[in-house]
Write a structure and sequence with these properties.
About 45% of the residues lie in helices and about 15% in strands. By secondary structure, the chain is an alpha+beta fold. The strands form 2 sheets. It has a 4-stranded mixed β-sheet with strand order 1-4-5-8. A 4-stranded antiparallel β-sheet has the order 2-3-7-6, with no helix packed on it. α5 packs antiparallel against α11, α6 packs antiparallel against α9 and α12 packs antiparallel against α13. The longest helix is centred in the C-terminal third of the chain and has 29 residues. The two termini are about 40 Å apart. Bound molecules: flavin-adenine dinucleotide (FAD).
Length: about 400
């Protein structure tokens, strides 16, 4: 089996590396310690390169980046620890609007998102519904030419810097839960919207957002009234394919190898020369290769015109579970030294293992939990009976 990527993809990798050398600074990475994993200048620079519009599927009017190239882009961005929470959201939102939106959304929202001038965030989850996202209770009620929205959303990450929230609402409470849903793209500066910060153990800042009598015109509706679940499926399809953190482990493996090279045990042997340490490092590197294979397999399917589904779930499930395992291993390897945080000038590689150890469990929650992804793999790929 030949695992090498096509020469165009490796050419593109060199372009991305040159771009990052010129546009990504250590200060941008440091700035994410406030919890906002976004750099406006980096985001705009990627937009200027045409990588946002390029990542939107060609059949929707985007294009320019092959899905394998998009995978290379995401891999390089993650290897370099670039702050890119806004990237996947912009690409998925534009894809949703191009597939389901009317003229107003296409004209008012798409160009602003693709130029990097505006940002979007996702308002799907609620205090009482996360995995079971179709149980959303935020109400949208028609009032003449307008809609009035009342309710609250949880985990609206990026809302505090975004211009639009892609909001899942219930427009008909009297039909089956999947039938009474409708999406809107809601400008976040409308009266009646409140955004409150939610700190997470993984440093990343999220938000709770509240909607109190928010009025907006029908032109902001995304998809049919009652057709929200169809739009949601599109969102999940693109999110699992694009925004899943497929490459989270390499920076922690790098830190662990560096630590094992520099550190000796009580018997004066370098850790890197010990079989038990090498065993873990090599196993982690194998996992990284497996995760890459999942990711590039998914991308190659998309490149061949096959719209992946379950493969995106497999990729995210494997990568985030392996990442959690690696962080635990390496924290064990470092012992108390591994607990030194970024705030401690003596921390190895800026406290990278400690920071990732806190962040890893979160990746197995957002974008669909590992349990939900296991259910999807079990049902869609292994043909097991539905669990619920
Ligand atoms: C840092 C962070 C950022 C996020 N950003 C966003 C965002 O920007 N926008 C947004 O809309 N949401 C966001 N989320 C929400 C995220 O998608 C949900 O947290 C996730 O879907 C889980 O939902 P929940 O938290 O309500 O947990 P629940 O759904 O209540 O799940 C609780 C536990 O039960 C398990 N479980 C639930 N159902 C099943 C089942 N059928 N079978 C087996 N096990 C099951 C889950 O796996 C989990 O372990 C974010 C979450 C986090 C932590």
């Amino acid at each position: 089996m030949d695992f090498s990527l096509p020469p165009e993809a490796e050419d593109f990798r060199r372009q991305v590396r040159d771009f990052l050398a010129a546009n990504l600074t250590e200060e941008m990475i440091e700035a994410t310690r406030d919890g906002t994993i976004h750099s406006p200048s980096l985001h705009r620079a990627m937009a200027d390169r045409g990588w946002l519009s390029g990542a939107v599927p060609a059949e929707l009017g985007g294009g320019g980046l092959d899905p394998v190239e998009l995978c290379v882009l995401i891999e390089e961005l993650q290897l370099h620890r670039a702050p890119i929470d806004a990237l996947g959201v912009a690409i998925v939102t534009v894809s949703m609007v191009l597939e389901h939106g009317g003229d107003h959304l296409r004209e008012a929202v798409v160009p602003r998102l693709l130029s990097g001038e505006a940002l979007a965030c996702f308002g799907y989850s609620e205090p009482e519904s996360g995995s079971d996202v179709a149980a959303a209770r935020t109400r949208a009620v028609r009032d003449g030419d307008e809609w009035v929205i009342d309710g609250s959303k949880m985990w609206t990450t990026m809302a505090h810097v975004a211009d639009y929230v892609v909001l899942l609402t219930r427009t008909d409470p009297d039909v089956g839960k999947h039938e009474g849903l409708t999406f809107f793209v809601v400008p976040l500066d409308l009266p009646g919207i409140e955004i409150r910060p939610v700190a997470t153990m993984g440093t990343e800042r999220s938000n709770a957002t509240f909607y109190d009598g928010v009025r907006l015109g029908d032109e902001w509706r995304l998809g049919d009234v009652g057709g929200g679940w169809r739009v949601m499926k599109t969102a999940l399809k693109y999110e699992r394919g694009i925004a899943g953190g497929q490459f989270p482990s390499p920076p922690v493996v790098e830190a662990a190898v560096d630590w094992a090279r520099r550190t000796s045990d009580g018997a004066g042997r370098r850790l890197i020369d010990r079989d038990d340490v090498r065993d873990r490092l090599v196993r982690a590197m194998i996992d990284v290769e497996v995760a890459r294979s999942f990711a590039y397999h998914t991308a190659a399917l998309a490149s061949d015109g096959v719209m992946f589904g379950v493969e995106g779930s497999m990729t995210k499930l494997f990568a985030s579970e392996a990442y959690k395992k690696h962080c635990s291993w390496f924290l064990d390897l470092m012992g108390a030294e591994g607990l030194r945080t970024a705030a401690d000038p003596g921390a190895h590689m800026g406290g990278r293992i400690e920071e990732n150890f806190r962040h890893a469990p979160v990746t197995a929650i957002y974008g669909g939990t590992s349990e939900i992804n296991r259910n999807i793999v079990a049902e869609s790929h292994l043909g097991l009976p539905r669990a619920r």
